[in-house]
Specification:
Helix content: over 70%
Distance between the termini: 21 Å
Strand order of the largest sheet: 1-2
Structural class: mainly alpha
Length: 457
C-alpha cells in the first residue's frame, strides 16, 4: 500500500499547531500591561501586517522552487554557499533553543491544577527552581513525541491534527466564556500611561516572536502527498498567519474583558487563567482552558521537532555538516539520528532551567528573523534571474512587497542588535550569538570543500 503524504489540512495543522502554544496564556496580560487594551489590539494588527509579506515570500518559494530543505536550500540556490550555510545555521539555533523552552512551559500550566508539580525541588539557577515532577513530565513529553515521529510522518500528522482540533475547540469555549462573563470596564485604560507609541512597539517586539510556525511547511514539503495542489501549501501557510493573528487578537480582547489592571500583577504566574476562573466562577472551564493550552504546547513541540529534524537532516545531507546526520530510515523516511539528537538537546536544555534559557529564547527570535531576511533576499533574486518561471503562488504586489519584507526584516534585526532600543538583545545574548557564529565559522571551514547537493522534491 502506497504511503499517503501530507495534505493541505495536514500542513495547516502542522503550522498552526506550531504557532499557537502557551504564548497566548502567558503573554497576553503582558501585552495589555505594556500597551493598554486598545494598544495591544493595534499592536497585534500591525504585527500581522509585518508578518504577512514574509508569509507571501515563503509561499512563493515553497510552491515554485523544487528543492528540499526550505530556507537554506532557497538561499543556497539563489545567493550562494555561504549565505545558504548561514541561513541553515541560524535556523538550527532557533530550533535548539525553542524546543526545551516549550517543554518547561508544560509545568506552568499543570501546576495551576496540580501544585504538587512544583514540589521536590532539585536545584535553582538564576532564581528559577527546577522540580523533579516537572522533569519527569518533560522527559515523557520529549521522548514520547520523539518516538511518535520516529515511527513516521503518518503518526506525527495524526497526532498534530487531533491536538490542533482540540486546541481550536478550546479557543471557542474560552472566547464564549470571556464574552459572557467579562466586563467592558476592564478594557480601560485603552493605552498605557508610558506612551502610546512606546507601549505598542514594546508589545509588537514580543508578539512577532509568537508568529513563528508557518515556516515549518517548507521544511516538510518533501512529505506532501503526490496529488497535492501546490497552492494548498500557500493556502496553509498564509492561512496559518491569518488565523493565528485573529486568534491572538481575540485572546487580547478576551483577556482585557476578564482582567482588571490589578489582576495583571496580582494573580501569580498565570494571571489570565486566574482571572478567567474569577470571572466565570467555573473550575471546569479553567480545566478545559488548561487542557487546550497543553494541546497547544504539545503541537508546538511536535511541529518544531519534525521541522527541526527535517532541517538538520537536509542541511547535513546537502554537505554542510557530517553526512551521517542526513541519513533517513529506509522504511519511514524519517531522520532518526536528528530526531534523537534534538531529543537529547531538549533534555539537556530542560535541565538548564528557565533562567538560563530566557536569553536563548531571545536569541532564537533573532535567528528566525535573520532566516526570514535571507529568504526574502532569495525571492528577490529569484524574481531577477528567473522572471518567467512558473509560480503556482505569486507574491501579491510582486517585487514591491518582497522589498517590503526585506525592509521589515532589516529594520527589526537592526533594532535588536543596536543597544538601547526597546527590543535590543542583552550582553548575554551578544556573547551567545558570537559563540554560535564562531562555532559556525569552524564548521564552515571544515566542510567548505565538500560538494553541496540540494535534493529536489
Amino acid at each position: 500500500m502506497e504511503k499517503k503524504g501530507m495534505t493541505g489540512k495536514d500542513y495547516f495543522a502542522l503550522a498552526f499547531g506550531s504557532m499557537i502554544g502557551i504564548g497566548w496564556v502567558v503573554s497576553a496580560p503582558l501585552w495589555i500591561s505594556n500597551a493598554g487594551s486598545a494598544g495591544a489590539v493595534i499592536g497585534m494588527i500591525l504585527t500581522a501586517l509585518i508578518v504577512i509579506p514574509i508569509g507571501f515570500v515563503y509561499s512563493e518559494l515553497c510552491t515554485s522552487v523544487n528543492v528540499i530543505g526550505g530556507e537554506f536550500a532557497y538561499t543556497y540556490r539563489f545567493l550562494g554557499r555561504l549565505p545558504g550555510f548561514c541561513t541553515g545555521w541560524v535556523l538550527i539555533l532557533g530550533y535548539v533553543t525553542m524546543l526545551p523552552w516549550v517543554v518547561l512551559s508544560v509545568s506552568s500550566m499543570l501546576a495551576y491544577l496540580f501544585p504538587q508539580v512544583r514540589e521536590i525541588p532539585l536545584y535553582t539557577v538564576l532564581d528559577n527552581t527546577l522540580y523533579l515532577p516537572e522533569v519527569i513530565i518533560g522527559l515523557i513529553m520529549i521522548w514520547g513525541l520523539t518516538y511518535l515521529n520516529i515511527r513516521g510522518v503518518e503518526s506525527s500528522k495524526k497526532f498534530q491534527n487531533v491536538a490542533t482540533a482540540l486546541l481550536l475547540l478550546t479557543f471557542a469555549i474560552f472566547f464564549i466564556g470571556c464574552f459572557a462573563a467579562g466586563n467592558t470596564e476592564n478594557l480601560k485604560p485603552a493605552f498605557s500611561e508610558g506612551g502610546k507609541i512606546n507601549g505598542i512597539m514594546l508589545a509588537i517586539a514580543s508578539m512577532i516572536f509568537f508568529m513563528n510556525g508557518f515556516d515549518t511547511i517548507p521544511k516538510t514539503a518533501d512529505e506532501s502527498d503526490k496529488n497535492i495542489n501546490a497552492r494548498s501549501l500557500a493556502k496553509a501557510l498564509v492561512g496559518t498567519i491569518l488565523l493565528g493573528s485573529f486568534i491572538y487578537l481575540m485572546v487580547i480582547v478576551c483577556a482585557g474583558l476578564v482582567m482588571s489592571p490589578a489582576d495583571q500583577v496580582n494573580l501569580g504566574d498565570l494571571p489570565l487563567v486566574a482571572a478567567y476562573e474569577n470571572a466565570t466562577g467555573s473550575k471546569l472551564l479553567v480545566v478545559i482552558m488548561i487542557i487546550g493550552t497543553m494541546m497547544g504546547v504539545l503541537t508546538t513541540f511536535n511541529g518544531f521537532l519534525l521541522a527541526g529534524a527535517k532541517l538538520i537532516s537536509a542541511f547535513a545531507g546537502a554537505g554542510f555538516l557530517g553526512k551521517s546526520l542526513g541519513e533517513t530510515d529506509d522504511k519511514t523516511g524519517m531522520p532518526k539520528k536528528t530526531l534523537l539528537l534534538l531529543a537529547v538537546i531538549s533534555t539537556a536544555g530542560m535541565f538548564l532551567g528557565r533562567g538560563l534559557l530566557a536569553p536563548l529564547i531571545t536569541l532564537g527570535g533573532l535567528a528566525f528573523l535573520i532566516a526570514w531576511l535571507f529568504v526574502s533576499l532569495s525571492d528577490m533574486r529569484y524574481r531577477k534571474v528567473e522572471p518567467d518561471a512558473l509560480r503556482p503562488f505569486s507574491v501579491p504586489g510582486g517585487k514591491a512587497v518582497i522589498g517590503l519584507a526585506i525592509f521589515i526584516c532589516v529594520a527589526l534585526i537592526v533594532l535588536m542588535l543596536i543597544p538601547g532600543t526597546l527590543i535590543s538583545i542583552g550582553t548575554v545574548e551578544y556573547v551567545l550569538l558570537i559563540g554560535w557564529a564562531a562555532v559556525g565559522a569552524v564548521l564552515y571551514a571544515i566542510y567548505r570543500k565538500q560538494d553541496i547537493y540540494i535534493k529536489e522534491k
